[in-house]
Amino acid sequence: MKSDQYILLEDEFGAHNYKPLDVVIERGEGIWVWDVDGKKYLDCLSAYSAINQGHCNKKIMAAMVEQAKRLTLTSRAFRNDQLGPLYKELCDLTNSHKVLPMNSGAEAVETAIKAVRKWGYQVKGVPENKAEIIVCRNNFHGRTISIISFSTDPVSTTGFGPFTPGFKIVDFGDTAALEDAITDNTVAFMVEPIQGEAGVIIPPEGYLREVRRICTEKGIVLIFDEIQTGLGRTGAMLAEEHEGVEADLTLIGKALSGGFYPVSAVLSNTEVLGVLKPGEHGSTFGGNPLACAIARAALKVLVEDGLIENAREMGTYFLEGLKQIDNPKIKEVRGRGLLIGLEFHDTAGGARQYCEQLKDAGLLCKETHQTIIRFAPPLVITKEEIDWALEKITPILSR
Questions:
Q1: Per-residue pLDDT, 139
Q2: PTM N6-(pyridoxal phosphate)lysine: at which residues (predicted)?
Q3: What pLDDT, on the 0 to 100 scale, is given for residue 11?
Q4: Tell me, what DSSP letter sits at residue 55?
Q5: Of the candidates 132, 38, 59, 95, which has an alpha carbon nearest to the alpha carbon of residue 307?
Q6: How far apart are alpha carbons 186 and 8 in whole angstroms?
Q7: What is the CATH number of the domain that holds 40?
């Protein structure tokens, strides 16, 4: 079938909860993908940073196939030979004490919410059902009812109430607002080190360090949602490393499987995850041997193939190239590592028109919040490939 036939099938039989660009991809390798009509594209989205290691990474694929031949699922009623090694490798790489594996990013966020509430009641002494968690305006942590209960995006919330109570919202980057919002019932502050879905919003220098200080002094749990920013995307294993801080809970997912399988995890100190007892939380598929084998290979590729360093170096190069584009319609170009946002003024007519033109030129990216294009290619990208991308991007974004 041709692209238009696949699109007609989706439109007729699928729920219309996405508005994708009209490209039907059938295969991928490294930074490149091909559509069903044979056209080649440079992927500058990486499935929202899930494919940091590149499409169909051969090392991860080999680990997946090998494990799939041996054992895929036991449930957590039994132990498996991949889970313990994954725990240790994750803890060694991230300086964590405990790991709780799940499947999706939203599940990791829900897990963190449950854990810090229970910690608040059992350890901090918050009255039952009074726990409060502080979050940031313009956050994106997932799509479940509890998570959208603290979203400030009307597209995410309209028509989905009633919502889960127990959350306060403060401005991102404002430590004074955070401090003012903390009460005796506050159990945690959850924040993205860089707000990805909001348009690659980078907080002021020192913000994360000050947040760490406040949370320590006030006796509340600091949660970093690194589902998009973690695992090399910003030029560090975790984005928290740019300010030399450590969260009490860190949430990872997406690139934890290199795009082969849904895998997420809550990384924690012993105190917080230690409150969970058998039967209180879990998942049939969370921590299954296939997921663990894939995650172990995905982590190994990030480290041994130098992808974190490459993200740092190529991100600087790509960012500088984008900043050279001369167009008064462009408001700002910002980023860290290979997570880059290019924002247009409201009068530019929106970012999607540019994404559609770039698609026609052989480069795939996606708009966010109407006026922003996010550029986030796989971390395997080379200088020559960035030059190729800039040759496509510059004339289109100069209009």
A1: 98
A2: 254
A3: 96
A4: B
A5: 59
A6: 49
A7: 3.90.1150.10
If one counts the domains in the chain, the total is 2
Which of these, 301, 306, 396, 379, lies nearest to 338 by C-alpha position?
A: 379
Which residue out of 225, 248, 318, 366 is catalytically annotated? 225
**Domain region containing 371:** 3-56+306-397
Cβ–Cβ < 8 Å for 265, 239: no
Q: Do residues 345 and 390 both lie within one domain?
A: yes
pLDDT, tens digit, 9 for 90 and up, residues 113-171: 999 999 999 999 999 999 999 999 999 999 999 999 999 999 999 999 999 999 999 99
Residue 46 shares a structural domain with residue 69: no
Count the alpha carbons within 13 Å of 120 in the hemisphere toward its beta carbon: 26
| Domain termination residue (choose one: 280, 304, 328) | 304
Q: Do 65 and 25 belong together in one domain? A: no
Q: Say whether 140 is catalytic.
A: yes
Q: Which of 118, 254, 359, 366 is catalytic?
A: 254
Report field, pTM of the whole predicted structure over 0.90: yes
DSSP percent split of the chain into helix, strand, coil, nearest 5: 40, 20, 40
Q: What is the pLDDT of residue 300?
A: 98
End-of-domain residue from the set 241, 274, 304: 304
The verdict on 166 and 234 lying in the same domain is: yes
Is 224 noted as a catalytic residue in this protein?
no
What the block records as the tokens of 326 is: 């001369």
Burial bucket for residue 275 (CB in 10 Å: 0-12, 13-18, 19+): middle
Instruction: Determine the pLDDT at residue 234.
Output: 98
Evaluate whether 336 touches 202 at the Cβ level (below 8 Å). yes
Which residues in the chain show pLDDT less than 70? Answer: none
Counted residue by residue, the chain has a size of: 399
Residues 269 and 281 reside in one and the same domain? yes
